[in-house]
Amino acid sequence: MKQVFLICAVALAPFSASAQENEPPFGLGDLAPLADNFRDFFDAFTEDMMPLMKQLSEKMSDLNAFEAPEVLPNGDIIIRRKPKVEEAPDVEPKVNPDGSIDL
């Protein structure tokens, strides 16, 4: 959290200096350092958030094993597991060792 405040303070420093000199708040040349500061901020932010996003995506894949929640009249919420799907039998007929096919 301290990093966020530090980055914001560094990013806004050119604006406070130009306001004291009674110049326009920013020109086209002043936006390049600001853009660089924000790029650094978002690069650090994405590095910090990447492990959390991976964990979240793993948890989201686990949600496919559950039905939609049901709210009972007394206010209880039930979330049931989906029944396990059994594999379908083979569709193709099997060939016997003598070359015949059982249907």
Please render the helix and strand layout as text:
Blueprint: H1 2-20, H2 31-62, E1 70-71, E2 77-78
Antiparallel strand pairs: 1-2
Overview of the structural elements:
- By secondary structure, the chain is mainly alpha-helical.
- The protein has one domain.
- Helices cover 50% and strands 4% of the residues.
- It is built from two helices and two strands, in the order H-H-E-E.
- It has helices at residues 2-20, 31-62, and strands at residues 70-71, 77-78.
- Strand 1 and strand 2 form a beta hairpin.
- Helix 1 packs antiparallel against helix 2 (31-62).
- The radius of gyration is 30 Å and the shape is elongated.
- The model has no long low-confidence stretch (mean pLDDT 76).
Rg (C-alpha, Å):
30 Å
- DSSP E strands, number: 2
User: Low-confidence runs (pLDDT<50, min 5 residues)?
Assistant: none
Indicate the overall shape: elongated
Residue share in β-strands? under 5%
Q: How many angstroms does the end-to-end distance come to?
A: 69 Å
Biggest β-sheet strands, sense, barrel: 2 strands, antiparallel
Task: Count up the domains.
Answer: 1
Q: Please give the count of helices.
A: 2
User: Helices and strands, in N-to-C order?
Assistant: HHEE
The chain-level mean pLDDT equals: 76
Structural class: mainly alpha
Portion in helices = 40-55%
